């Protein structure tokens, strides 16, 4: 009763921001991401008859408290599906900075879902696995698939129609995503708390939701047509609108740092000089820059010149779940 799975993180091009149901993790809007080959989590789940409780090791360190609790609650869902009340040892290796806007929860919960389901003997297809992963972390449902992925919000109250589908596989389009690392420290406002506060208090939130269907339709067409400038401009505008909602929240907050702004301005400067590059930022200070392979040297050189940039990690569209 043991299995190991690898999942990659993803970066949302059309953001997931806000829930219509907190407990089932049902999003207020459909959203779209690209899976990244540069960041991943490998998780081994071993269900054992002699264990008296779940055990969680992250990067070889024993984890207790809230983080262990989250894993145990998720494993309860897996146990309920299988009808087997057996505890597990979970060992995860995270190749992602945790809680810094790099979607570590997406790869972490996707890998946990895949490994635990396989270890306990469940035969889930990708749709069922996506629904299961969603109940641990919303963005994890997208990391079941590689390439470009849409999380369909669904309409049902029980969440049965809220899951991810692949829009285009990783081989469809050779683009690059530079993850610009400004801070590896944990953010002060978690994604979950930031969403809740924005939905409940920001007067800008309704306008954000209103624009999503148009953004989503147009970006899917841009991906199908491999229209890089159209895709990039939609993703960048969608990102800015999402972050604007946080400034309208009560109390207001932002995930950006001064270096975040410098990276954004550098990307805009590159465009003015004829280099098609666009930025997007999830719930954290770190910036992801979209560009084409032929412009890699120019983009990397400019990004490395920015004061406050710790590292740059280059990704291509990545794979979905794999078993090791």
UniProtKB/TrEMBL annotation:
The keyword Signal does not apply. Residues 180-305 form the Mvd1 C-terminal domain. This is diphosphomevalonate decarboxylase. Residues 7-164 form the Diphosphomevalonate decarboxylase-like N-terminal domain. NCBIfam families: mevDPdecarb. PANTHER family: DIPHOSPHOMEVALONATE DECARBOXYLASE. The keyword Aminoacyl-tRNA synthetase does not apply. It comes from Oceanobacillus neutriphilus. InterPro entries: GHMP_kinase_C_sf, Mev_decarb, Mev_diP_decarb, MVD-like_N, Mvd1_C, Ribosomal_Su5_D2-typ_SF, Ribsml_uS5_D2-typ_fold_subgr. Pfam families: MDD_C, MVD-like_N. Belongs to the diphosphomevalonate decarboxylase family. Keywords: ATP-binding, Lipid biosynthesis, Lipid metabolism, Lyase, Nucleotide-binding. Its EC number is 4.1.1.33.
């Amino acid at each position: 009763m043991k299995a190991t799975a690898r999942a990659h993180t993803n970066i949302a091009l059309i953001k997931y921001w806000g829930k219509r149901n907190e407990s089932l993790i049902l999003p207020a809007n459909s959203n779209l991401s690209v899976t990244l080959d540069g960041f991943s989590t490998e998780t081994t789940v071993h269900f054992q008859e002699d264990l008296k409780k779940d055990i969680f090791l992250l990067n070889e360190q024993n984890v207790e408290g809230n983080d262990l609790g989250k894993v145990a609650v998720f494993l309860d869902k897996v146990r309920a599906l299988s009808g087997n009340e057996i505890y597990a040892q979970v060992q995860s290796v995270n190749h992602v900075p945790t809680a810094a806007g790099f979607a570590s929860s997406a790869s972490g919960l996707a890998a946990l879902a895949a490994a635990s389901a396989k270890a306990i003997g469940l035969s889930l297809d990708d749709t069922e696995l996506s629904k299961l992963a969603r109940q641990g972390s919303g963005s994890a449902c997208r990391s079941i698939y590689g390439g470009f992925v849409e999380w369909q919000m669904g309409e049902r109250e029980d969440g049965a129609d809220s899951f991810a589908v692949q829009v285009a596989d990783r081989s469809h389009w050779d683009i690059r995503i530079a993850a610009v690392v400004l801070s590896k420290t944990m953010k002060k406002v978690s994604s979950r708390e930031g969403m809740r506060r924005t939905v409940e208090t920001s007067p800008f939130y309704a306008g954000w939701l209103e624009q999503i269907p148009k953004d989503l339709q147009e970006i899917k067409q841009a991906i199908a047509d491999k229209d890089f400038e159209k895709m990039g401009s939609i993703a960048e505008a969608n990102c800015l609108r999402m972050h604007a909602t946080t400034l309208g929240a009560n109390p207001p907050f932002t995930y950006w740092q001064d270096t975040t702004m410098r990276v954004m301005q550098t990307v805009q400067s590159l465009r003015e000089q004829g280099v098609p590059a666009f930025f997007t930022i999830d719930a954290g200070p770190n910036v992801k820059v979209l560009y084409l392979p032929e412009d890699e040297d120019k983009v990397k050189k400019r990004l490395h010149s920015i004061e406050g940039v710790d590292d740059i990690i280059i990704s291509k569209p990545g794979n979905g779940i794999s078993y090791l």
